[in-house]
Design goal:
This protein is α/β, with parallel strands linked by helices and 425 residues long. The chain has helices at residues 32-43, 56-60, 86-92, 106-120, 168-171, 208-219, 246-251, 261-268, 270-273, 278-287, 394-397, 407-424, and strands at residues 8-12, 15-19, 21-28, 48-51, 129-135, 138-143, 148-156, 184-186, 200-204, 223-227, 306-308, 311-319, 322-329, 334-339, 341-344, 368-369, 372-373, 386-388.
């Protein structure tokens, strides 16, 4: 076995790259969950190599001008030491600290995330992992550059981009897959909506992504139609003010996910959720904080453009360079809508096969329920040494893991699990 720190090099033509290096932990992904896990590992004295572009999902898969749905007090990346919250960053940068009555701009959050990374996880490697295979009790990783390394533990924290979900009836329009410059796209494929000025766009969905994308499209000069499966469009409530009174605090306790007992319960007890039957856990992920817009978004949506509620897309087809959608309402009546472009703001679905860097022989060993990996209390999968955090862990620990606030639970527990794995291997 190659000792830690060994640096063996290999030449292929004019290229020289490292092979057979070894690290205790490899973290795949440099978003909030990957950075938090790496920071907690460093505090435990465990070296880790972290791969990926810092905050890539936030920088490339979310539109400019958007705001976080979570409040400033629920938007900090978990660090093992005090002094690294979003408020701390604002203070250090000489910026006014937003309060919970004002949404957090994505540009501010990205600046904060990069500040966090530079101070706590400075050695992030902007490399893509293209292969992870099991070798004895370890894992062999291959990087896009050609480098190969071994790790005792691997933490998968690679964000949402590979999990974007587009319904089959829409995918039929573009067999090659959705793209920002074609007739069909997923909401995660847009950074700038100005290219849709003067065009007619249908947005499918009723969540924050759908409603905020529609608002930004409208404000960019597009003609917008929002198609909502349900009978109504829902919005959250403003954060409780300190003067709201003790009775209201009892009836609607505050939490990182917003006021209310259901939000309070799933954010305070994620460790207990894993003891529920898998069907119950998945129901919580879908139903608690289901499709809705933030309270501050309502004035940018209501009455600004067409909201077609109670509409289901039954089929879609190209009509020249446009797309015709066949719709069905709650009464079973059908209608058609033809637009220049369709944006599927239809969320994300966890499917282990979406992580195409995992070797094929790992899949049969990965226990899962409807695509969600089954994890231990320390985020370890059924493959010893392979950990999942972020959204894939929501199927075990509940909806808290869909949000940045979930790093406060995941960072310490996943790092503790990886540390235990290393010390017992």
């Amino acid at each position: 076995m190659t000792p830690v720190g060994t640096d063996v090099r290999e030449r292929q033509g004019d290229r020289v790259f490292r092979v057979s290096t070894r690290t205790p932990v490899a973290v795949i992904g440099a978003g909030p969950y990957g950075l938090s896990t790496a920071a907690h590992l460093a505090q435990r004295g465990i070296p880790a190599r972290v791969f990926g572009e810092p905050l890539a999902g936030w920088r490339h898969h979310m539109p400019a001008g958007m705001y976080l749905k979570s409040t400033v007090s629920a938007s900090s990346i978990s660090a093992p030491l005090p002094g690294y919250t979003l408020a701390n960053f604002c203070e250090s940068a000489g910026l006014a600290v937003p309060d919970d009555m004002h949404p957090v701009p994505i540009d501010l959050f990205v600046r904060y995330g990069l500040w966090f990374q530079e101070r706590l996880v400075p050695a992030v490697e902007r490399e893509r992992v293209i292969g992870v295979a099991s070798v004895g009790n370890d894992f062999a990783l291959t990087l896009e550059s050609g480098e190969k390394l071994q790790a005792t533990a691997v933490v998968v924290a690679c964000g949402l981009a590979s999990l974007a979900y587009v319904p089959a009836e829409l995918r039929a329009v573009v067999p090659a897959g959705p793209s920002a410059d074609g007739p069909l796209s997923h909401s995660s494929q847009h950074r700038d909506f100005s290219c849709f000025a003067g065009k007619e766009v249908a947005v499918i969905g009723a969540g924050q992504s759908a409603l905020e994308s529609a608002a930004l499209l409208h404000e960019s000069g597009a003609v917008v139609h929002v198609l909502v499966r349900g009978a109504t469009v829902l919005y959250g409530r403003p954060p409780q003010e300190e003067s709201a009174g003790r009775l209201r605090s009892v009836l609607k306790p505050g939490s990182p996910l917003g006021p209310g007992w259901s939000h309070f319960a799933v954010s305070r007890a994620p460790q207990l959720i894993r003891y529920l039957p898998s069907r119950g856990r998945q129901h919580l992920v879908r139903s608690v904080l289901g499709p809705s817009g933030a309270w501050w978004l309502k004035e940018r949506v209501a009455g600004r453009f067409q909201l077609l509620t109670g509409r289901v897309v039954r089929a879609a087809a190209l009509a020249g360079e446009r797309v015709t959608l066949e719709l069905e309402d709650l009464e079973g009546r059908t209608d058609r809508l033809t637009v220049d472009h369709v944006i599927a703001a239809t969320g994300y679905r966890v499917d282990l096969r979406s992580f195409d860097f995992l070797a094929a022989d790992l899949y049969p060993r990965l226990e899962h329920s409807r695509g969600w990996p089954r994890l231990t209390a320390s985020f370890e999968s059924s493959v010893p040494g392979l950990f999942f955090t972020g959204l894939p862990a929501a199927g075990t620990f509940g909806p808290l893991l869909r949000f940045v606030a979930g790093t406060a639970f995941a960072g310490p527990h996943a790092s503790a699990g990886a540390t235990a794995r290393i010390r017992t291997s």
